[in-house]
Every structure is written in C-alpha cells, then in structure tokens.
Amino acid sequence: MVEQRLLRGMQPAHLLATRAVQQCDVDSVAVPRDHAPTAGCAGSAHLRNPRADALRDYPRHMTASPARSELIELMTSVPALDPQVWFAQSQGTFGLVTHVPFPTLNGVWIHSDEATADDVSQLLEALPTDDAFCLQACPETRDLAAEVAVAHGMTAGPNVPLMVLPSPPEDIDARLRIREIPPADHDLRTAVAAAGFETDPDGLRKATRLFSRVPGYRMYIGEVDDITVTTAVSIATGSGVGIFDVATPPEHRGHGYGAAITARAVRDGFTAGARFAWLQSSPEGFGVYERLGFQTVEEWGLWISG
C-alpha cells in the first residue's frame, strides 16, 4: 500500500525510508568489465592497482552499493526541506515532486526489489504535477520498471551510471581559480550553469534554493581572468560526498575545467571526512569522471513522461 503525505514539519524522510532499503552481502557489488581496473601489461599481473585496492575497501553496507544508500537517503530527505514538496512511499519505492522544473527531480524511484508494479503505478498516477517527470529504477528492478513505464506511455532514456571514487584524486592544474561560494551568492554560478546545461536559469535558481538547505551543501565556481567558466556542487551524505551540477559552457570546454573543479569538490569532501565520492553521470560527463578514477558500480534505468 502506498503511504502518501504532504510533509510539513516532520522528521527527515530518510529516517522513514531506510528500513525498506535492501540488505545484501559484501560481494554483491560488481564493477562492469568495461570499467574494471586492469592488472597491468603482460607479465605484470602481480602489480597492485591502488585505485582497485581502494575500491575493494569501499564500505559496503545496507545495499548493493553504499552510494545507492546515499542517493536514496538524500532524495528522501528533501521533503523535510520545504513544506510544498510532495512525498509518498511504499516498500522499495517512493514518489517525490519538488516542483523544480526538471524531470529528474520529480517522479518515482524504485530502489529495491521489494517494490511491486501496482505500487509503482499508483505512485506515478498520484504525482501532483503537470510537468514532465521521471521513473528511475535500480538494476534489479529495471524489467519491472520498463513494463510499468510502457503502460504509462513513458519514453526510455539512457541508463544512468552510479559512479564511485574510493580515494581522493590528485590536483589538476587547469590554470583555474576555484573558490567555494555561499548559497546566497548562487547567481554567480547560475548563468554559467544554465549555459552549460542549456537550460532555464530560473529552474536552476529554484533547485539551488531547495537543495542548498541540505546540511553539507557546498557550491563552487571556477574562474579564468575573472570570468566564471565552470561550476560544481557537492553535498556531504553520510559516509560519502555526492557531486552534482558540474557544468561548463560549450565555449569553455576542452581545457579540463570540469575535471579540475570536480577534483577540488571531491578532495574537500574527503578532507571533511568522506570515505568515498559518488555521482550519477550524464553521457556527456562520463569520460571526464572515468579519467578522474570514478568507476561504475551500477546503472539505473530511466524513463521520462510525455
């Protein structure tokens, strides 16, 4: 049965959701072969790969991916930030409407195989929005999600890699001045982020106003000759640090700015106590994150309404 409410003044919703998150054992995380570290050149198989060693030490608790736990806890904590955010949940799935006008910030998430097709359908039908929304599904539920998505006329998008970096990256010299700015100065990054994402700056402002209330939210801009050329956001999430909104306008790409500002945000997260960094990558950013050492631990299915 779907439990539905408009949360007002309640405890953070992740306290409600964690009981339904799937348990599994240590060896259930698999790095896809295409992204697995190699042992070295022929005759060098005995050499150790420090990045691979760190990934083996990456903390595994609660779910097939600790990063999945961090993602779910972050998203289900959003209703406590704003009384107008809509939230409903059932076993293994939840619905969320932030009213931020981006499909991937409104919709239904399936995070465990305890979810049923009926509950997912009920959540999709209950979403109080006329704007586009998404259905996102963890790997073991993609088949179920695909059937529900087809029944609701949704269109499949590219799978979304959930990526992890188990140790801080080295500094990247991109001749870039990187600085952290307070949320009150979000307009310093809005224009460059909107240009990088080719989207509405008003939507970005609304997203910033909402998510900057999350404890551990940090915002960065990168400048060259006093011109803002790139931006990124990080959020401390339990044992990890999540990386979001890495954006560089087309005219400033190809100089390593996105990689440099991501590396800075990750290093700051580790300095503050994170044990790993995580992110969900777009197709455009995937290569940048791989070169920094991020590895895919699982791929989520994605469908968009309309």
Explain what you see.
The protein is α+β, with helices and mostly antiparallel strands and 306 residues long. The protein folds into 2 domains: 1-160 and 300-306, no CATH class; 167-274, Gcn5-related N-acetyltransferase (GNAT) (Aminopeptidase), CATH 3.40.630.30. The chain is built from 9 helices and 13 strands. The protein has helices at residues 14-17, 50-57, 66-77, 117-126, 142-151, 187-197, 201-211, 257-271, 286-292; strands at residues 3-6, 86-90, 93-97, 106-110, 134-137, 155-156, 160-165, 177-181, 217-224, 227-237, 240-247, 276-280, 295-304. Strands 1, 2, 3, 4, 5, 6, 7, 8, 9, 10, 11, 12 and 13 form a 13-stranded mixed sheet that branches. Helix 8 (257-271) packs across helix 9 (286-292). The radius of gyration is 19 Å and the shape is globular.
Please render the helix and strand layout as text.
Elements (H helix, E strand, L loop, with lengths): L2 E4 L7 H4 L32 H8 L8 H12 L8 E5 L2 E5 L8 E5 L6 H10 L7 E4 L4 H10 L3 E2 L3 E6 L11 E5 L5 H11 L3 H11 L5 E8 L2 E11 L2 E8 L9 H15 L4 E5 L5 H7 L2 E10 L2
Parallel strand pairs: 4-5, 11-12
Antiparallel strand pairs: 1-2, 2-3, 3-4, 5-13, 6-13, 7-12, 7-13, 8-9, 9-10, 10-11
Can you summarize this structure?
The chain is of the alpha+beta class. The protein has nine helices and 13 strands. Strands 1, 2, 3, 4, 5, 6, 7, 8, 9, 10, 11, 12 and 13 form a 13-stranded mixed sheet that branches.
